[in-house]
Amino acid sequence: MISIIVVYNNERTLDEVLLKSLKNQTAKFELITLDNTEGKFRSAAEALNYGGKRATGRYIMFIHQDVELDSASWLERVEKILDGLPSLGIAGVAGMGEMGGSHEERKRGCISDCGEVWGNPIQRPEEVQTLDECLLIVPNSIFSKMQFDEKTFDHWHCYAVDYCLSVKQMGLITYVIPAFVYHRSLRRNVENLLRYQKRLYKKHRKNYKEIYTTCGDISQLKFLKLRLRSPIELVSPLYMRLFPDWLKILRKELVNCDRVLDLGCGYNSTLQYCNVPFSVGVESFNPYLQESKKKGIHNQYIKADIRKIEFQPEAFDAVVAIEVLEHLTKQEGAQLLNKMERWATKKIIITTPNGYLWQDGYDDNPLQEHKSGWSIEELRNFEFKVFGINGWKSLRGYMGLIKYRPGFLWRRISDLTQKMTYYYPKLAFQLLAIKQIDEGDGK
Description:
The protein has 14 helices and 22 strands. By secondary structure, it is of the alpha/beta class. The strands form 4 sheets. The protein has a 7-stranded mixed sheet, with helices on both faces.
């Protein structure tokens, strides 16, 4: 039997993703859920050790709240695979091998991660150096001898990689197994990642000249780079206050907006970063709609063409359209802006490129094509206040990607320009337009 340990901070995601996929499993299992909504556990290692010590199954599976097993027989099939693995120390569904000339070539296992396919498919279990932390399976007999390192990894990074490298010192093997899952992650958490990569390297550098992880490779050269970059982390809180991400502005604008309509919500809406009590997502491309549903970003979903959908006047506190207008003709966009004003009681928020930016369809979604470009003057004619976001326009190109290399340096330069472009939107890559609707003036 497999004991399943999950630490969660979002009960809706837990219910809609992991628990729903466990509901009809053909194999018996033990489920141990650990509520961390109030920050009871300071680190992943602390939480997983707490749960693992209570497990009674032959195998202990540590899994994220936003991982979905791909079939009802997943646990049954995996348990049979595990029973046949010699010298098993730890297993997972995605990891990094030591063979290959590049990061991409070393990827082993295949999963859906943040809506995209990650890795290289395998037909049978393969030995690897490290595993991704989204799903880990450890024999209970091994876990009873060695738990996760709570002292060194007192946060939420690198604990899994450390465990993989540590079991090898016990003469055991780390495996990737052919078992597909959907990692319905909303975003990648990289806060303090460099700090813990540095700790990881210090702990294991005597045995490994290079450590390959799904979050990047670490070597002596890169360790030196980490030492140089660590001071940046120390000033990052000040940096973020001086050069805030536009999402911080969005969160502030949506304070006291209890009902929000998200038009063209896509599969990874920015509303996931906002504490909105109730939101409705409208999307016409079904794969995006289903992916967003799996993630549980919105409370309610509507599959509809935003050009044709209708709502009652003043049905929402705020109506947002993030990167939507450019996908409509100028006439369709103008009509939508007028309808948004009728539906909102407090404000309308939109973002769009500064002028026309060519983009074709992708993801097999013809709706991704750009059909129009909007200027500051045109948005002001609709009585919007317009600000500039995502830095200086000349630094970015197709799909908003930084044009120049090294990317890390030019992204920092782009951030530095944000303070200026916010107030001088003509210089900005994107426009943030906000329209306040006077109370009682909804149309």
